[in-house]
Structures are given as structure tokens and as C-alpha cells.
Design goal:
The chain is an alpha/beta fold. The protein has helices at about 10-25, 40-45, 55-60, 65-75, 75-90, 90-100, 115-125, 155-185, 195-200, 240-250, 265-280, 310-315, 325-335, 350-360, 375-385, 385-400, 405-415; strands spanning about 1-5, 30-35, 50-55, 110, 130-135, 205, 225, 255-260, 285-290, 305, 320-325, 340. The protein folds into two domains: about 1-230 and about 405-415, Glycogen Phosphorylase B (Rossmann fold); about 240-400, Rossmann fold (3-Layer(aba) Sandwich), CATH 3.40.50.2000. Helix 13 links the parallel strand 11 (about 320-325) and strand 12.
Length: about 425
Amino acid sequence: MKITVFAAGSRGDIQPCVVVSKGLQQAGDQVRLAAPEDFAAFAQEHAVDFTPLRGDVQQIMASDTGRRFMESGGANPLRSIRAVRKMIAPVIMQMAEDAYAACRDADALLCLGVFSAFGHAIAEALRLPIVHIEPTPLLPTRAFPAPSWPIQRNLGGVHNYLSGVAMLRALWLWYSPFVNEFRKRLGLSPYRAADFHRALRATPMVSAYSPRLIPHPVDWPAHIHVTGYLFLDTAADWQPSPALETFLAAGAPPVCIGFGSMAGRHPEALARLALDALSMSGQRGLLLTGWGGLRTASTAGNVFVVDSAPHSWLFPRMAAVVHHGGAGATAEGVRAGVPTVVAPFVLDQPFWGARIHALGLGPAPIPQKKLTAERLADAITTAITDHEMRQRARAWGEIVRAEQGVHNAVEVIRRCFGGPDGAQEGRSHEA
């Protein structure tokens, strides 16, 4: 079967799609990943057939609009609508058109859930079965507040469910003008919010996170499958630099601090804050600069700076990890079995920070607006010295490492698409 995987976003969005593409390839399917062009090298590194979508995600996130959104634009769902539309307007139609072209000879479409409206337009026009994949809960539920909802406290089932409805409405409003322009170009009738919500709920989904961290809510349909995390193992030929190996061997395990694609408009100040927190807490540190470009001109001898390294290799060698709370970084921190300190910026990051804290795997999250060197130093000290927290982190690491998320996801997708594992569960589109 020829399957096109349509994905866009940050590394945390693309990586699960690379992993499941590899899994489907190994199961005998012909898979093509259609993702923004700046992920071409990443896909090629893992031998995944790749079709570039026009639009550089790193450039969007590094723009002044993108950095401003990281700092505050996502905290208010209403304000986020204008900010997201402004960010994506230059590229979203090109991405959608390129994704459509990548599906012309496909038998089925696997699409990130947040781009469901575009995926359904493609599936409807080409009469393809479609399955969603998503690293963060997307459907409303009474079980917990919606990721990206400003209030990440469980105030009861009604509040939780309505927060999910509100966030789906915001998601629809992010994309609706572009979706309906795209549908018009494909000769399809316009979509309404109700159409989007109904199609999203009716479509099978691979929910790519641990069923122990987030059990399947009872008010979700059975075709929403919580499969387990889709971890990317370290490439066999990857090797740390001699300088990094020397640093790690020179003392106690350090604390890793990195914020992925998040750094706001002042990456130098954020790097200085991180260095000050390490100094106050008396810990060795590893500064992982990432996309966000944490910038520092100088460091003390007990701090090592690296642009990037596979989390699967790096995190287990740390005493604790500090990050923004993205779905991918959170998953790797749990798998590593070390305490996690979350300093969230926007969107689903406060949700994952709250989840880590509720499970006792890290101290309370510190929103970026409230982040100071003193608060971060206190959180790092807690993560290092709380014996029970460290024991829980180790135990959860063992649990998550034992889950077979990739196997489960591949089995679900092949069954949904009518592969050898069972009858077709997917559908071409929802009107």
C-alpha cells in the first residue's frame, strides 16, 4: 500500500511521523513523508522517502511574529487566532497544495490531527481513506482540561469538556479561511466548524502518547487509539563529540537545559538565566541550544554547550532535564527516567508540565513569564534532591520503555487502511 504522511510543525510534530513511517516501511508498505523542506535531512537520515512542502518552519518560528507568539500569543485562545493566521499566511496554501500533489498516487493518507481540515479536503478530493496521528490529546473530554486551554486545573467534567470544545473552535478559526480557499481550488463545498468537528471525531486517530500517562477517556470513541509513544532510537552511526564525552566523564551527571524551538525574542537573556540558575543550584549543566537559538558568548567550566544531540542518548545521562514541555521532549524525559522541570511557553506545553507535576515526576511547572533564575534554581534543586521524585521518575521510565508504541501504531494504521491485519476502519471523508 502507498501511504502519504502529511505533517508540519516543529520537530516534536514531525518526529513521530518519521518513526511511524519507518515502522510502516518495515511492515511492507510504501511510505512518503510530505513535510516542510527544512526536515529533508532529518527524513533522509532515517531512510524515509521524503517530499518537501514549501515553507521553512524554522524561519517562521525565528521571525519576530513567531518569537512574539512564543512569548505570549498562545496564552489567550482568542488572541492566538490573529497571531497564527499571520504566521502561516505566507506558506499554508503552498504547503496544502504540495501535500495534495504528494497524495496523487497514494492509496491512503496519514495526517497530523491539527491539520485535519486540510487532510480531509485532500482525502475527499482524491477519495482516499484517512487516519489522523497526533502527539497530544485533541478531542474534548471530561477527563482533563484541553491542552492549550489557559486553565490547566481540573475544575470538573463540564469545564474540561467545554475547554476542549473551545480549543477546537480556536483551531478551526486558525485555519478556516485557508481551508475553504483550498477546498474551493479543489472544487469542494465549503467547510463549517461543525463539519470540521464532526470529521475530526469520526476519523480514526493514532494518539501517540503513553496510555499510562493519559488513559483512553471513556467519552472518546473506540477508534481513537492511545498506542504509546513513538520513540526514535538513536541512529547507529551517531557518535558524541570527544569534547562532550570528556565533559560527561569529568564529574557528576549534569542538568540539561534546552527549549527546542522556543526562546522568545531574547534568547541571550534566557541563556543567561539558565546559566545563573545552574550556578545558584551548584549543578553542572549542559545547554542544548536547539532551534530557538539559546545564545551565550561564554560559559563556566562546569557548563557545556551543544547545538543538538539525540534526546534518546543524552537524557538518560543527565541528573535532570529542563525544557519547554513540548510533547516530544516530555516523552523523552519520561523515558529517560530522570526528573523533569518544565518551563512552558505556549500551546500544549502547560498541559504537559501539569501532567508531569501531577504524576510526581517533576516540580510544578514555571511559566516563562514567571521564570527567574531563582525559581529555576529552586526547581532544579528539588529535582536533584527529592529522593521519592527520582524513584518515581526511574519507575516511570521503565514503564514507558516497555510499551510498544510503534508496533501498536503500525498495527492500528494498517487495520484502519484495510491492510493484512483486518478490515478497513478508515473512511475517505466526512461531509
